[in-house]
Design a protein that fits this description.
Elements (H helix, E strand, L loop, with lengths): L3 H4 L23 E2 L1 H5 L4 H22 L3 H8 L24 H13 L1 H5 L7 H5 L5 H11 L1 H15 L4 E5 L3 E3 L4 E3 L2 E4 L1 E2 L2 E2 L8 E2 L6 H20 L5 E2 L5 E2 L2 H7 L4 H10 L1 H10 L8 H4 L5 H13 L8 H16 L3 E10 L4 E9 L4 H8 L7 E6 L8 H8 L9 E5 L6 H13 L4 E5 L1 H12 L4 H15 L1
Parallel strand pairs: 13-14, 14-15
Antiparallel strand pairs: 1-8, 2-5, 3-4, 6-7, 9-10, 11-12, 12-13
Helix pairs in contact: 3-4, 4-5, 12-13, 15-20
């Protein structure tokens, strides 16, 4: 048994990887949450959300128009998503996808549910609340099928970034085509392990639990509402305690009502304001931490090892690739989950220009959240250029990265180098770029990277953003 990183000899662990480093022989109990994807604003998540929405709407349309054959055709495109090694299977990945018989059962469950009949099914995640026998594992598997096209694109990007070999002409499996509301397939390039194709999944897309939970909706919203109703109407379910306080225990309500998913669907159709309040206040489960994803992970020790590794990388063009790959991993380690979806050799201007690494800014708070909202910066994408020079970077390097800024990407970049002979002179050049409204470039050299790694080693990760803010303030003063 080996993880992806071990099988392909990446010499990097989960902390340096943007994808979940799964064991290809055993499923990891993580789920792809369609609601969480829908709340993310990065390009990849938006594309996934559009696909998920169009697929589920096609199913609902078929049910409402009584086009059972069309609905079955759509559901028959769902198969066991073994390629991700995620889910609840025991032992070897087996998937919990949809076979032909299961497709009929699934269609019947959705069609016959009160939620479909009353029109409160608006997104795939609603099935967890209202459709019997459809839970988080099934919803995750359906989502995986529907976003297979986007997962293939992410996998290919990561393979290019990390140097993972791919096999040409691998059958893609069914791909959802939202333009035609149908399935198609193609041959593509994917990594293969022991004869099985592999789909890599972004860390930012997985959760231990789904956003929607029918138990949470029942216990904290429906039962609370019913308690208030019984107290207001002074029904026989109201108890009066010795101190005079009146109450309706939730245990009594559960005995009085048969609160299954059909009850929840009927309740939500009669009290849509309660469902709306639930959806408005639920918290999206957080991305799994490195500790969650890695057994026996010693983050301080790993930070110290990264700092030592950086000092062992020689300067100069002959070692540029090693430095480049190291930087992509160390930035992933330092800035996850704020920066996601790294792309190597990112093409702009129809391929006439390239950027060493581009990260999607997926943060709504902290330094990167502030950079996303900053009127002069608008950092949707973080531009990163890596220069493994034995000399200082100069104006040509600054002009190069400034030339990669654009309104849709934003105007913030990190220029990574090995060191300064004259740091203040380079800072002044960065200030000139900012004053001329050509963007904000933050220079980071070995000493800066090592300092941030020492912060992690000393369990002071929070100081990293303070350092970035100080550097930003210096080059924009």
């Amino acid at each position: 048994m080996a993880k992806i990183s071990e099988h392909f000899g990446l010499n990097q662990n989960q902390g340096q990887l943007n994808f979940v480093d799964v064991d290809t022989q055993r499923d990891k109990a993580l789920f792809i949450d369609p609601h969480a994807i829908g709340k993310s604003s990065d390009d990849w998540s938006v594309s996934c959300h559009q696909a998920i929405t169009s697929f589920f709407q096609a199913i609902v349309d078929a049910i409402r128009a009584d086009r059972g054959a069309d609905g079955l055709t759509l559901l028959n495109g769902l198969h066991e998503p073994n390629e991700t090694s995620l889910g609840l299977s025991k032992g070897e990945p087996a998937g919990r996808g949809i076979g032909r018989i299961q497709a009929q059962q699934l269609y019947n469950r959705i069609r016959d549910s009160r939620a479909a009949q009353t029109g409160i099914l608006n997104e795939l995640s609603d099935c967890e609340l209202f459709v019997p026998l459809i839970g988080e594992d099934k919803i995750s598997d359906i989502t995986t099928n529907v976003i297979r096209r986007q997962l293939i694109q992410f996998t290919q990007s990561q393979c290019e970034l990390k140097g993972i070999p791919v096999t040409e002409g691998v059958p893609s499996g069914f791909l959802w085509n939202q333009a035609t509301s149908s399935w198609d397939n193609q041959y593509t390039d994917l990594p293969v392990v022991d004869g099985r194709k592999i789909l890599l999944v972004p860390k930012s897309a997985v959760r231990w639990n789904m956003s929607f939970s029918h138990a949470q909706f029942r216990d904290h919203f429906v039962l609370n509402f019913l308690q208030d109703e019984h107290l207001r109407n002074d029904t026989r379910l109201v108890e009066t305690l010795n101190n005079g306080r009146r109450r309706v225990p939730k245990s009594v309500l559960k005995q009085h009502y048969r609160i299954d998913k059909e009850f929840l669907a009927r309740f939500a159709s009669e009290h849509p304001e309660v469902l709306a309040r639930y959806k408005a206040v639920i918290d999206i489960p957080p991305e799994p931490t490195l500790d969650d994803l890695t057994e026996h992970f010693d983050e301080p020790l790993f930070a110290r090892e990264l700092a030592e590794e950086l000092t062992q990388i020689d300067r100069g063009n002959a070692h540029a690739t090693r430095y480049h790959k190291f930087i992509s991993g160390v930035l992933e380690f330092l800035f996850y989950p704020y920066l996601t979806m790294p792309e190597m050799e990112y093409e702009v201007n129809e391929g006439r220009k390239r950027i060493d690494i581009v990260y999607t800014n997926n943060s709504s708070f902290g330094f990167f959240g502030a950079m996303l909202a900053h009127p002069r910066v608008g950092c949707r994408k973080l531009i990163v250029e890596c220069k493994n020079y034995s000399k200082d970077c100069a104006n040509p390097e600054l002009d190069q990265i400034a030339g990669r800024f654009a309104p849709l990407r934003g105007k913030l970049g990190f220029l990574l180098g090995r060191g300064f002979d004259d740091r203040q002179r380079f800072i002044e050049r960065c200030k000139d770029t900012a004053r001329e409204e050509r963007g904000v470039i933050i220079p980071l050299v070995d000493d800066d990277i090592i300092e941030m790694l020492r912060m992690v080693e000393n369990r002071n990760r929070n100081l990293i953003e303070d350092k970035l803010q100080r550097l930003f303030d210096i080059v924009t003063e």
